[in-house]
Predict the structure.
Amino acid sequence: MTGYLFLFSSAYTLIVIPELRRIEGLEEELISLDRLTPGSSGVVVAVQGEARERFVDLGLVEGTTVEVARQGDPTLYRLRGYFLALRRSDACRVLVKEVGNERNDYRSSGW
């Protein structure tokens, strides 16, 4: 199958994204949102699954930068000026490209 990228999320589900390699700057590996560590950030590349519309309504759209503020289940993410709590089962449906691994404490940044 040419033009398809196959990824396995942490929930052991197969995610197929057609023509993903055509997006500029995707030489690095994509990971699911639940795999980011506290303080690290990622840019949303794709949202999969039946709840895609709900994620879009929450602001998880392609190009959005998401930072992990506190890890657990649910995990607390910071994006677009607010905090969002997502369970791992939902966060594994969001694919991101990791953009930084600086450990930033959200409490000291005025949030």
Notes: The chain has one domain: 25-105.
